[in-house]
Structures are given as C-alpha cells and as structure tokens.
Amino acid sequence: MQITACVFVILMQLVAMGKPITCQHTTVVLYNSLPAEMMQVHCLSKDNDLGWHTIAYLATYSFDFNVNFWGRTLFACDITSDHHPISAHVVVYRGPAYGVTECDDNCDWSITPNGFYLNGKFMMPWPSNMNTN
After folding, report:
1. Does the pLDDT value for residue 46 go beyond 80?
2. What's the predicted TM-score (pTM) here?
3. I need a surface site. Which of 2, 8, 71, 94 has the fewest CB within 10 A?
4. Strands of the 39-44 sheet, one edge to the other
5. Contact 81, 40 (CB under 8 A)
6. Strand order in the sheet with 106-112
7. How far apart are CA 25 and CA 18, in angstroms?
8. Cα(75)–Cα(45) distance, rounded to whole angstroms?
C-alpha cells in the first residue's frame, strides 16, 4: 500500500512539472505513391530496428508501437527508390516530450515524386541529388 502511494505521489509531481506521461498506441503507415517505382524503407528507433522493406507502387508498409512512458519515442525512416537514390531521412513519429507532434495515434505518410506528406500535409521534399562539383 505504501509503495502504491509513493508511485502515485511521483506521478502527480511529474504531471505538475509538465512531464508527459503516455503509453498511447500509435500506427505509422508509409504509402508508396511513386508511379511504377519500388520504394525501399528502413525504419528504426533507439530501441527497435525494423530492417529494410521493399514496397511496391500503391502498396503500404506499416508498423505500430506504444509510446514510452516519458513520451520520448522517436521513429525515423531512410527512404530510397530508383528515381530517388539519395536516401531521405524522415522522422515519421516524434513523441510529445520533443515538443509539438505532427501526429498522435495515426501517422499516415504518402511518399510522392515531389516529397513526403503526413496526413495530407506536405512536410518535406526529396533531398537534392545535384552534383556540387
């Protein structure tokens, strides 16, 4: 009983300090909108390396996870294709401890020839492959 009360007091102090307390379930979906192209993705967090996956045109790759207690979960993906050989490094989920989050429980990414969209909002273009020599 005393341990439960102690845990409750600590949790209340964290809430009062503005520290995130979360265990929300989140799904990330990567949708290949690159016409007639295969897309390769490699997603990982500090604790989970999901490996490389090849996604056909109009197909998806998805994964889900629970945001850690402190709200510090962060997943990023390296994404390439035949017409975009320079890997794009895209943070596909950033927990509430990092400030404003672009998505909560559903992070639907569409990868298009001109860049990356999250839940219909343009987020970033493909990296430039221009030769600077």
Report:
1. yes
2. 0.78
3. 2
4. 49-55, 39-44, 74-81, 84-94
5. yes
6. 60-66, 25-32, 106-112, 115-118, 121-124
7. 21
8. 5
Structure tokens at 99: 């400030």
- Which residues sit opposite 75 in a β-bridge? 93
pLDDT in tens, 7-20: 454 455 455 545 44
Q: Counting beta carbons within 10 angstroms of the beta carbon of residue 32, is it exposed (0 to 12), middle (13 to 18) or buried (19 or more)?
A: buried
Question: Which residue has 């009062």 as its token pair?
Answer: 16
Candidates 85, 33, 79; CA nearest to 57 is: 33
| Cβ-count burial 94-119 (b if 16+ within 10 Å, e if not) | bbbbeeeeebeeebbbbbeeebbbbe
